[in-house]
Amino acid sequence: MNAYSDTIQPLKLQPMLSGECCLIDVREPIEHAEMHIPASKLIPLGQLEKRMEEIDRNRPVIVMCRGGKRGMEALNKLKALGITDVRNLEGGILGWKEAGLPVVTSRKKGLPLMQQVQLTIGLGVLTGAILALTVHPNWVFLCAFFGAGLTMAGSTGWCGLAILMSKMPWNRVVGQSCCASGNCSTSA
What we know:
It is built from seven helices and eight strands, in the order βαβαβββαβαβαααβ. The strands form two sheets. The chain has a five-stranded parallel sheet. The chain has two domains: 4-105, Rhodanese-like domain (Oxidized Rhodanese, domain 1, 3-Layer(aba) Sandwich); 113-171. Helix 5 (113-134) runs antiparallel to helix 6 (140-156) and helix 5 (113-134) packs across helix 7 (160-166). It is α/β, with parallel strands linked by helices. Helix 3 links the parallel strand 5 and strand 6.
């Protein structure tokens, strides 16, 4: 099967959400709480193996993430675990939203996870550069550390800092979904 047939476009997925498929969101809980597709079920990528019994194998399985990279990783994991009818949402939730399709967003305003990661990396590089210029040249290795992390995240789609940040107390999603507490709204 080629990579193209392993994906599904947002406009082709939308009519299937009335029960024809099982849509799995493989992002972290904080990302799901910020914005998600109404019919999606949250099973973070790192929990797929442990939560296989929650996936309905009697319907096509569609996986999704933010932009598509983690979704492809989830697709490959599920295929290795024996689920053959699985596809990745092309462009992830960003592609879904770009197509003008409805999303559920949290009314609780905080910094989105990716913005938190960008701020942390930016402050780390800036701090390393200032310390290297004013205290000791070896502080330049702090900048190199963050640069190496960005390079790895960009090339693999795996960002350890994002995973770490998603587990911070201010990013924890307490209780069930944001919708249960009335802190979300649907928009197109």
